[in-house]
Amino acid sequence: MDFLFNREVVMFTNVSGKSSFALKARIAGVACLAIAGIQSWALMSNTNSAGIFRYSSDEEITAECKDYAWSVGRDGIYRTINPAMWFKTWCAPYSAKIRKVDMDAYSARLRETIAKVDAEEQADKPSK
User: What are phi and psi of 89, to 5 degrees?
Assistant: First the structure.
């Protein structure tokens, strides 16, 4: 009798242990499938947006990439891993062009300001 009781306790313990593991395995499996589905959806949507901009004019692309290129920089674009990485990596070749255009415009404004200040200083100097 003692043997049968111990055997039933062992069987009950094993069954409940197995079902607990099976439940955890199912939950983990469902979670993994959900994560894989979300990642594949994000990858497809970002690939589609990159494809849309791939055939756009340079002006449209630079307008879309300008803020990102300025905030992160060319190196940061390549190092960034996030859901929008396809579009941002594709913008990378434009970031140097964007920076050059903006720096040229800034340099031109700076030269104009310096020329104005120099002209004002020359006008303020008394003639000898």
Answer: -65, -35
pLDDT at 1 over 70: no
For residue range 36-90, what is the model confidence (pLDDT) as tens digits? 998 888 777 766 655 555 555 555 556 666 666 666 655 555 455 454 555 555 5
* Other C-beta atoms lying within 10 Å of the C-beta of residue 94: 19
Query: Would you say 62 and 98 are in contact if contact means Cβ atoms under 8 Å apart?
Result: yes
Question: Which sign, positive or negative, has the C-alpha torsion 114, 116, 119, 124?
Answer: negative
What does pTM read for this prediction? 0.32
List all residues 6 or more positions away from 43 whose beta carbon is below 8 Å from its beta carbon.
86
- Angle subtended at Cα 56 by Cα 52 and Cα 62, rounded to the nearest 5 degrees: 105
* Residue 64: its H or E element: helix 58-72
- Would you list the domain boundaries of the chain? 1-55, 57-128
